[in-house]
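sry for the spam today, last one i promise. struct tokens for design, 253 residues
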């Protein structure tokens, strides 16, 4: 890690520490109602009390999110490459894709629960639907907009379809695919949490809903912080993957 990166990390850590200290001072001074905005120290004590429940719920939520995310990436990337490559198919399906993408997904949740009941299945299905369309739309556009000159030159040198996709199309769409994957994981996690809150019997969404209904503000803040931290770690991991794939993309050119 170079000096610039270390300085950036130090500034980030100091900023978070300063924010927590200011929050603690405001709470202790009585400027906010502790019933709704507890001090960070109270949140830490609450996390120690309910840590086992929170992390068990987080594990259950992340497992369902991972399954939904894999399905969303496979369907979104595969479907995007297909739609982006086949013009007639793209033109035929584009109105339906755009309509489904713009439709509030919460409208289909009652139907999913009606057919699948309660448990993991509706959460996975709803989260997959929630996460697949951003990936599908972005990848379709990226494949469609690949530089035609690169494709023409590759074909002129005798590149086969498999080589064309591996050497030209895939390296060209890597940034867009990663952008879609970053959006997809957030949407999948959101989808699982929504189902757990409104139609779940376990998981982090159910825990958050129970704490909110019980007016347990410190515990609710603690559980929210855990979910937020997990989401940040996942997104940063995808950023790291993006850096590695960018190197592969450069080598492939």
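last one done:
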């Amino acid at each position: 890690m170079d000096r610039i990166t270390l300085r950036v990390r130090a500034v980030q850590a100091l900023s978070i520490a300063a924010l927590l200290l200011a929050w603690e001072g405001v709470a202790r001074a009585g400027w906010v109602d502790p019933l709704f905005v507890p001090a960070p120290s109270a949140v830490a004590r609450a996390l120690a009390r309910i840590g086992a429940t929170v992390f068990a719920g987080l594990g259950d939520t992340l497992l369902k999110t991972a399954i939904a995310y894999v399905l969303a990436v496979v369907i979104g990337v595969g479907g995007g490459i297909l739609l982006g490559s086949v013009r007639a198919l793209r033109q035929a399906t584009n109105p339906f894709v755009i309509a489904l993408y713009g439709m509030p997904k919460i409208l289909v949740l009652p139907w999913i629960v009606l057919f699948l009941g309660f448990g993991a299945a509706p959460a996975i299905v709803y989260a997959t639907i929630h996460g697949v369309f951003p990936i599908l739309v972005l990848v379709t556009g990226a494949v469609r907009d690949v530089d035609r000159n690169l494709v023409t030159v590759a074909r002129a040198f005798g590149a086969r379809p498999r080589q064309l996709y591996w050497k030209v199309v895939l390296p060209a769409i890597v940034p867009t695919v990663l952008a879609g994957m970053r959006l997809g994981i957030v949407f999948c996690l959101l989808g699982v949490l929504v189902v757990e809150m409104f139609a779940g019997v376990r998981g982090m969404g159910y825990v958050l809903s129970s704490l909110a209904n019980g007016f347990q503000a410190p515990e609710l803040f603690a559980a929210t912080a855990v979910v937020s931290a997990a989401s940040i770690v996942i997104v940063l991991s995808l950023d790291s993957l993006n850096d590695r794939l960018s190197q592969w993309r450069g080598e492939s050119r």
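Residues 35-252 form a domain with the MetI-like fold fold (CATH 1.10.3720.10). ok im logging off now
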